[in-house]
């Protein structure tokens, strides 16, 4: 039932004009990350998929410059790539990483949440919910190779993965910093964090909008491993090999057992959550905070 609802949303997304226009990335032969039988890279303008069929693994590279902000188009392309890999029996695991130097993802695209019509906010929030659900419940092993800064929605995306490897660079902070923008992390962002680092640590991190540098991220458990920057991809691959050595059906059922109650809460409250988001984001005070935050980002350069 839940999956059917998800598929309907995705299908609707695929039918949108800009989604219909998505092209398969012109062929480079893969895999770029070692091994394999030379299957071609595929993907879309903002998502590059480097398949390694011999290993049963695909590297999914986010490339929505300058900062991999999670726009509606980008989220849809990510979902399409995930679905394609899930439907291909060759693949058992994906490594999610970034093609934008120094940035894993700047989180939700603030321009999707500023100065738009309520109908747009509904459409955008549905895509955010769908991305979380599909990644959180994916049957594939999903490992995040975090090679850059990862605030808010970027952190959330990595928290949907089964394992997080972070590059040891003090600039690469990670966390749910929504309060610093004058906004509130929805209950399912919070639940995902609680499931990862526990209640007390989440309470502190969310209220203070903490962005953890690598050593602290490791200590609190936001990430599973911190490694030198040039070893992030190779570490993700070794971890993947360990996870893929487990009988797949047993691992998948265990993942579902662990995650379904959290996902079910959103699935049963999905419409109410959209209404809450739209009401909240349409508030004058929230729009002012977001505009001011975006302005501050732009002025940083000048
Ligand atoms: C009763 C109440 C109940 C309430 C219930 C809840 C209801 C729902 C509430 C709503 C929740 C919404 C949740 C949102 C989660 C999010 O993800 S919000 C986004 C948070 N992201 C950030 O804070 C990151 C912001 N960006 C940065 O800090 C930096 O850009 C960077 C560290 C990522 C990179 O720095 P640098 O390399 O120096 O690049 P910049 O020059 O800063 O940026 C380049 C360019 O990109 C634009 N940009 C940056 N981030 C974003 C973004 N997230 N979205 C859109 N655009 C972004 C930036 O403005 C620059 O643009 P220009 O080149 O100047 O045009």
Automatic annotation (TrEMBL):
Any one GO CC term of the record: mitochondrial matrix
The EC number(s) this enzyme carries: 5.3.3.8
Gene Ontology biological process terms from the UniProt entry: fatty acid beta-oxidation
Top-tier EC class: isomerase
SUPFAM superfamilies given in the database record: ClpP/crotonase (SSF52096)
Record-annotated membrane-spanning stretches: none
Key words of the record: Acetylation, Fatty acid metabolism, Isomerase, Lipid metabolism, Mitochondrion, Transit peptide
Pathway assigned to this chain's UniProt record: Lipid metabolism; fatty acid beta-oxidation
Pfam families membership: ECH_1
Reaction(s) this enzyme catalyzes, per UniProt: (3Z)-decenoyl-CoA = (2E)-decenoyl-CoA; a (3E)-enoyl-CoA = a 4-saturated (2E)-enoyl-CoA; (3Z)-octenoyl-CoA = (2E)-octenoyl-CoA; (2E)-tetradecenoyl-CoA = (3Z)-tetradecenoyl-CoA
Superkingdom of source: Eukaryota
Cellular compartments annotated: Mitochondrion matrix
Summary of subunit composition and partner proteins: Homotrimer.
PANTHER family according to UniProt: ENOYL-COA DELTA ISOMERASE 1, MITOCHONDRIAL, ENOYL-COA HYDRATASE-RELATED
Family: Belongs to the enoyl-CoA hydratase/isomerase family.
Protein name: Enoyl-CoA delta isomerase 1, mitochondrial
Chain's gene name: ECI1
